[in-house]
Amino acid sequence: MKSYLDCIPCFVRQALEAARFVSDDVAIHEQVLRDVLAAAATMDLSQSPPMMGHRIQRLTRKLTGNQDPYREVKEHFNQYVLKMFPGLRESVEEADDSLNAAVRLAIAGNVIDFGPFAQVDEALLKRSIQEALGASIPEVVIEDLRGVIEQAESILYLADNAGEIVFDRLLIEQMPAQKITVAVKGEPVINDATMADAEAAGLTDLVPVIDNGSDAPGTILELCSEEFRQHFEAADLVISKGQGNYETLSDVEIEIFFLLKAKCPVIARDIGTDVGALVVQRGRAAAQAA
Amino acid sequence: MKSYLDCIPCFVRQALEAARFVSDDVAIHEQVLRDVLAAAATMDLSQSPPMMGHRIQRLTRKLTGNQDPYREVKEHFNQYVLKMFPGLRESVEEADDSLNAAVRLAIAGNVIDFGPFAQVDEALLKRSIQEALGASIPEVVIEDLRGVIEQAESILYLADNAGEIVFDRLLIEQMPAQKITVAVKGEPVINDATMADAEAAGLTDLVPVIDNGSDAPGTILELCSEEFRQHFEAADLVISKGQGNYETLSDVEIEIFFLLKAKCPVIARDIGTDVGALVVQRGRAAAQAA
Known about the structure:
The structure is a homodimer of 290-residue chains.
Chain A: H1 7-22, H2 26-41, H3 50-64, H4 71-94, H5 98-108, H6 122-134, H7 139-151, E1 155-158, H8 164-172, E2 180-184, H9 195-200, E3 209-211, H10 226-234, E4 237-241, H11 242-249, E5 256-261, H12 265-271, E6 278-282, H13 284-289
Helix pairs in contact in A: 1-2, 1-3, 2-3, 4-5, 4-8, 5-6, 5-8
């Protein structure tokens, strides 16, 4: 997905919010803001929005000297969701359609995203779970996903955020473990899940987990490691969580399903849905070929 | 008032909204946005926020070739408020304290502001009137204003927006006409009132009306005409309507009362009030000397 003009005011707002999240130093806030303004003034709008998020996050880490400023919120949400996990797993197992329930919950967890939002709290997460269980997802899309999972021999699951990755475990447990590889980010960026979060979620005991070698908030293939790209190209199916992965992979021609909560009007419009909607979307290339 | 870091994302959003308001041409939207980003990247934050609004509005007028893009909404709101005017005047005349009622209504009209908001509608204005009549304004501040009006021999009333200027007439009618001069903008900028709006409101038949010689959305004294500055310096009392005038005059040491509706969190914090509050604030210099 390209960047839209509407992304620009949002980049500027996010830059200020991110700088304030990681530092109390007003001089750092101003420096981050001015850098992003100058970059946005000449940016190539054909680039996907996470390119700018990548720049903002690298600069805030450099200026503060803090390589993982979201470590605390990542650990908090991992632990918080782990406490809910037995109950959530039971509800998945008892559901008429366990895959359908697990998809909904995996998407519900996608609200734990400190990119578009400056703050995420537990009340928001609880509302998201309730909404996800009641939301309408076309049955035909779930059936498509079920069929592709059954046919695929290798599935690459692109995790998005810490905390959310515990919800992902619910969905991963509904698929044959021997088919699956999970990918996390190579370095900390916002509250995106890294290997430490995959371990905290208990995923590393279930399936192979790799990192993508990158610190971009999404999957910018040219910034990923050669090892990750080989997995990506070899996979029969990619399951992609979250906005950042959608923004960076929506134009790639592979068999891919995007699972996310639409959190901004630009992405909602690009997908053709409403803000707040649960999205299960098959990649355009595969959908057209089917 | 200086510009705060929080003003910057707002400038960028306003630039895009203003460009879209005046043109359907995406190339113009992008050009305005990139210009404001580049300017904001190096801007002197000791300047007041209307300096950036001034730049945005000049550029949109230049790129579209439309010297008065808000003409239609200005006329619409003048006519709309004129229809309400007899009823509003009656309520002022019948009030226990007519000055107090007229102050409230003059501030209620300050929501007709296409600067911070991309759209203003009649429902918003009606709510603003209801809120203004019920809002709490400290009696002591109204008494201060009443006393200063009585003592002053010359009063300069700085109007803000079209439509709102009809509400201003309610307040101006509560003051001795021979003391008053009303000032409007020298050239169109956003929906700020110009001489045509003062005429539409019937003010030119009541009191002398001058223009300030400037197309800035506020009163940036160094951009105003020599004639206006003489009036400004000679006045015993300045009554200043709206956010733009507050932002550009809050540090000037004269006897001045600011009447406005706080429409953004930055101004609300600068004043020490809440967003949505009706503000009647005596200038700091005069308040300290008193």
